[in-house]
Task: structure prediction
Amino acid sequence: MAREKNYVSEAVMRRMPKYYRYLTDMEANGMQRISSNELSQRMGLTASQIRQDFNCFGGFGQQGYGYNVCELRREIHKILGLTNDNNFIVIGAGNLGQALANYTGFEKEGFLIKGLFDINPRLIGLSIRGIPVYDIDKLESFIPENQIHMAAICTPKEKAQNVADQAINAGVKGIWNFAAVDIATPPDVIVENVHLSDSLYTLSFRMSD
Amino acid sequence: MAREKNYVSEAVMRRMPKYYRYLTDMEANGMQRISSNELSQRMGLTASQIRQDFNCFGGFGQQGYGYNVCELRREIHKILGLTNDNNFIVIGAGNLGQALANYTGFEKEGFLIKGLFDINPRLIGLSIRGIPVYDIDKLESFIPENQIHMAAICTPKEKAQNVADQAINAGVKGIWNFAAVDIATPPDVIVENVHLSDSLYTLSFRMSD
Result:
């Protein structure tokens, strides 16, 4: 199934987590089955769009029955790679890094934060909700020893490329970048950006007359 | 200039803050002028793409000269609505709400957080970097009294729709939504989502073999 991933557009890739989120809520509410029309209304997509999206992965659902909520959620769970080992680390233990460590929502899907890293001596040695803050010097040994493949970067933008390089050298293959700068990586490393200021400016742009 | 906004695609709208970010850094580094080729290399876009994007707003730059960094930055500053009054509030003063309040980067562009709102009596009355945490009961009077048009929502997902409704009733026209749920709004209210879990799942998806 994952083989088809390379042929999946950016837009479909961005919608899959949204399907997963809606299906998780429906399952939690005891819903067993949903028609493609109702799913499309809830999600603000057309039924044909949903069929096209699911066809990228071989298609789900049966004519006249709709979708089995639990099965569809399980399929998307697999597609998203949520069955993998998804431990990660957070580099930069400031406000945002600590907010990520304090948030329990990621753990429900198996994304465990195994450590925070910082250069600030006042933070090193602390623990945030039981997650230790280590000296950044430990980064390059910690990553292979703990088989970490993902790192969230919550440093000031001036430090981001440097810590990303260190993490990638030590084996990280995915960067979740919160720094307000774009990070250059080798082709086999995936970067997912959360540029908060860009998002705020987009909101401002769309609100301006 | 802003009139053209309605004809601007979502993709262009998402790239404008990125141009702004790059130009701000270039200006800070003392760069006065940039060729369209160099800009395209730095940003990972084609020169023709950049020209097309800028043509949505009447076009900038001169054949053979390239772009004047300071002027271009100023134009995009206007386009993004950053010349407007961009005070906002944060609803939900937990870890993420506090991280937003502690971050000083938004202020540089005139996005001042005027207050945080929560239901938790242990948070109400505190101040985060000088920004007071108010009882959520104060929300509906605070918004018109302080001419607030934007609200960041950092509550648990179960509360998000309800606080958004309250904020919109009181006059908010833009919602910056961090809750892991989609919020329904009247057509004249803009929602910009930062769905952190969706972003993390997208990263996981793109990393999976």
Remarks:
- Residues 10-28 of chain A form the longest helix (19 residues).
- Chain A touches chain B through 55 residues (CB under 8 Å).
